[in-house]
Each structure stands twice: as structure tokens, then as C-alpha cells.
Amino acid sequence: MASPVDTLHIPSGVRFSCSGCGDCCFNWPVPATGEDFKRIKAHASDFGSSETDLFRVLQSSDAKLQVFTHSLEKRADGKCVFLTEQSRCALHERFGEQEKPAMCRMFPYTFTATPSGIYASVSFASTAVILNQGEDLGNQEEHLRSRLDLFASLFPGLELDWSGIQVIDGVDIGWSDYIEREAPLLALLAAQDSESGKERTGARIERSFNTACRAFREMIPGTVNLNDMAGFDAPAKLIDQHLVEYMLRFYFPDDIFNCTTGDMDARDLLSRVLSGQKGVTIRYAGRQSSIADLAGTSLGRLPDSLEDILRRFLYLRVFSKLYFGPGFNFLSIVSGLHHLTILICLLRLRLKLDLITGQLERADLESSRATARLAEHVRLLERRLTICNFSQESVAMLEVFCASPDRVERVLALSS
Fold first, then answer.
1. Cβ proximity of 317 and 327 under 8 Å
2. Biggest alpha carbon distance in the chain?
């Protein structure tokens, strides 16, 4: 009988199949193993290139990158040298999937090791994942296990320590207790029964999610006031505005491919909050928008197709344990859940900014144009989350700012 740590958990209602579409070619320079280098350089002449055109030597002190010796160069336009005009992977099309770099073959699969087994997932950096296209992952266990073996070969010895997870700073929780309390969240976010034919109606998914998070908040002793911001004289709503403006800039930079920092500038945000600076504005699409502009633009509940993208994004972050502890910068569970809720609010605020700046018309919310806009916002967010490597200062700041249930409610209202 397999031990719990050998169990492979597969998300429900999630689809993906690789078609060689070139999605992975739009990410940052791809690290290549020594085997990748030998195999792909043999094809250099087929593309009118040389070894030096295709690769550069990769020098990194990061132990997690020890198996990678080179990286694939990008073209002048920032795209992979093997991306065709039809946005297809030329290596995949001409020589088969196995000729691609190992990291491209891994994309968009992710795996998180926990005391109760391995949790498989997929990244929202992939368009097919965002649109839930392909075969149900539940029918792909053999393929997922092959990707897991590849993952283990690329990141040997990678271990995550879940023994010190906390509900909030100072309140510990055991793994089995966490799994039991997580179950209602996953049940809320899981796909509807396709046989019932019923669509989700009513509250926005992030509002329902935040309500369900109450089970973790109720574990905190009554003597702890999560809304208490001792040492901060600025009005709570002004702190909200600075936090939202900063997080929009951090998670959605103008030039994401040249934005390599994975850490927040905690001191910059804190100085803005402590200064009491008012009149917070948000720069987007060449225009400065005020918080009042955002508050005055209503989205309401989005069409089911857009709500479903947000639901699956939430579902996979929770299912994969990628929002707290070793799964995400060692945030506590409550601050991690609140941070995750705020991220969905940021995606909605990006749609509001699209409306304010004319990138979308209100009638577009029911069209494929809105789906494309939301897909790009989600893709940007996923890419930023992938490289987040917060300092202790940044984690401490998020713990303080994201712990407050009242703050989350106000941000939910702002993104309504």
C-alpha cells in the first residue's frame, strides 16, 4: 500500500492538454539542462542559427537551479527563438515534444509536496489553463506522474517543511487539522456537478470565499484584534488605498519581462502610509485614475465565463497550498487567505481600469474581448507570483496589512 507521501492528488474539473501552441515561449528565458543543450544545439543549423545564437551559459548560485547549465536566448522582441509566426513551438512541430527543453515540457504543470502527498496543478500562465481547454487532469494520472518524475529530476532534494505553519502569527496548527478545515474551502471552489446543468449564481466567488475563510479566523483567540493597527495613525481607508495602489504596481508591472525583482519594497509602502499622503492615484494605460474613479465604476457579478476563471484560479491556489507557509513565502494561513482574496479583487480592479480607460466597453463584458483581457491580467499575476521571493520585511508588512478582515471587506467593496 502506498504511503500518504506517495499519494498524487489531482484537482477536479481542471483541464489541460499540450498542443505545442508556444505558450511557454512567452515566459522568461528558459533554463536548459546539459542534456537539453546537447540535444537542441544539434538542431541549430535547421533554424539557420549557431550555438551562441541559441544559448548563453547560465551561472547561478541558486541550489534549486543546479541542474541547469544554459538558458535559451530570446529574440530582439523578447520571444523565444523557436516561436513561429503562428505562435507555435517550432521544436515541438518539427521534431516532437521530447525535443523541447525539460522546463518547456514541465510547463504548465506544478507539484507541491506535503505530509499528505503530492498535489498536482497547472499554471495560469498558460492560455489553455485559463480557458480550461483540453483533457480533464483526472484522466491523466499516468502523464502527471511522468511530469512529476521530470520535476523531481529537475529539482532534486527540494523539500518543503510544513511543520511550523500558523493560523496567524503565534497560533500554530497541525497538518491534519489544516486539511480538515481546508475541505469546505475546496468544496466551495470545486467545479459544479456537470450532470446537474446548474450554473453558479448569486454572490461573487471571492465574497463567498472570504465568508468561508471565517472558519480559520475563528481559531484565533478572542483577545487578538486582527483589525488593530497599533502604531499607524493614518486612517484605515487611506492605508487601504496605498496598499491597493502598491499591489497593483507590484503584481502588474508595465514591462513584466524586464521586471525581475521578486520582492516588495516594504519601506516604500510603509513610508507612504506613515506620511499620510492623500489623493492616491493609479497609473494605467497612460492615464491617472483616482480611487474615486474605481469606486464609481461598478462591475457587479461578472458573466459566468469570467467568474469561472476567477474561481479556478482561487481553487488551484488553495488546492496546491500555494498561498501560505512554504507554499508562498511563509505567510500565515489567515493573512495568506486574505492576500489571495485581495489578489482576486486586483483582477477585478484591472477590469474596472479597462472600462475607465476605454480598453473595454461595458457591452464587452459579455464578449470574448473581456475574456481575453481578464486572461492577460491573470497571466501577468501568475507570472509575478511565480517569482515572488519576499524578504522578512515584506512578509511582516503583509502579515500586518492583510490580517484585517475589515480591510478585506473594504477592498471587496472597492472592487464591486
1. no
2. 69
Place of cell 480598453: 359
CA–centroid distance for 27 within its chain = 14
Q: pLDDT tens, 193-217? A: 443 334 555 789 999 999 999 999 9
Residue with cell 475546496: 186
- Of 247, 291, 290, the residue nearest 266 (C-alpha): 247
The conformation of residue 74, written as its DSSP 8-state character, comes to B
> Taking the CA of residue 220 as centre, how many other CA atoms within 13 Å lie in the half-sphere pointing to its CB?
22
Helix 236-251, helix 368-387: angle, nearest 10 = 90
Entry pTM: 0.91
Helix axes 266-275, 392-402, angle to 10 degrees: 40
CA nearest 30: which of 55, 6, 51? 55
Task: Provide the 8-state DSSP code for 89.
Answer: B
pLDDT per position as a tens digit, 21-49? 656 655 566 888 989 988 888 887 777 77
Report the alpha-carbon distance of residue 71 to residue 230 in Å, rounded.
48
- pLDDT tens figures, 373-383: 999 999 999 99
